[in-house]
Design the sequence.
């Protein structure tokens, strides 16, 4: 009998009940899985190359870079004409009349606007009006924006002179009569220079500058004689730098002074 039991045990496996089977399964499958996971974590936890370590100079430059960029433009570049500025900046709305913009060549729409004068039109373009955003400080400078305004207004019947850079003669919109050509050109140059350089202070009375059209402020200055007023414009006075901070010629400065003086009489 004893020999039979020993013979049966010799032919049976180590798993004799369900509990032993469960333990065998755990050791056979679960433990290897955890071992694999542990090995993966060990391998992936090795030191990695820090971001930017391949090019530390570039990484440092990117970290300390200031917010915003400064764009340097050539202040001496040739100014673009009104038509070019119109096509690059204004055509999107003024060619189609979008958002209530007066269409190019629409005399009926431009008529009331032209009556307000070139200065009012240019200021509306620079500062923005209704749905039109301010145009100043963009790709084109103020003179170029003014040229675009003149281009559109003249296409609708106006005869505004084309604004020129300070010191350069203005291009008249139409040929003047021979007898009045010199006077017309001088008047146009004076108005243009005033709008381009003098208006900043004389339009608002900044730094004690006599305001445009203010007879009370201009009377004592004009009483000193026009030669004295011309000299102040050339040499500078008070907060006004010599030549108003421009490169304008003596003739254009005199024309600008005459333009302001005439408005104060």
Sequence:
């Amino acid at each position: 009998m004893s020999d039979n039991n020993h013979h049966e045990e010799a032919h049976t496996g180590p798993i004799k009940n369900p509990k032993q089977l469960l333990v065998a399964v755990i050791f056979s499958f679960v433990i290897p899985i955890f071992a694999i996971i542990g090995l993966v974590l060990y391998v992936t936890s090795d030191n990695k190359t820090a971001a930017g370590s391949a090019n530390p100079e570039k990484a440092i430059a990117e970290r300390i870079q200031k917010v915003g960029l400064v764009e340097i433009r050539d202040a001496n570049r040739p100014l673009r004409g009104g038509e070019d500025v119109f096509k690059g900046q204004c055509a999107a709305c003024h060619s189609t009349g979008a958002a209530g913009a007066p269409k190019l060549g629409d005399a009926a729409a431009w008529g009331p606007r032209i009556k307000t004068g070139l200065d009012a039109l240019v200021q509306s373009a620079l500062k923005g009006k209704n749905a039109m955003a301010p145009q100043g400080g963009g790709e084109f400078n103020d003179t170029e924006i003014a040229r675009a305004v003149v281009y559109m207004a003249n296409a609708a019947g106006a005869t505004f002179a084309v604004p020129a850079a300070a010191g350069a003669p203005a291009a008249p919109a139409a040929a003047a009569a021979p007898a009045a050509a010199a006077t017309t050109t001088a008047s146009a140059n004076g108005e243009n220079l005033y709008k381009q350089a003098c208006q900043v202070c004389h339009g608002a009375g900044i730094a004690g500058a006599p305001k445009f059209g203010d007879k009370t402020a201009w009377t004592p200055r004009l009483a000193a004689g026009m030669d004295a007023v011309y000299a102040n414009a050339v040499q500078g006075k008070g907060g006004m730098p010599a030549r108003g901070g421009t490169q304008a010629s003596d003739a254009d400065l005199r024309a600008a002074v005459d333009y302001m003086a005439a408005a104060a009489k």
Notes: The radius of gyration is 41 Å. The CA atoms of residues 114 and 153 lie 7 Å apart.
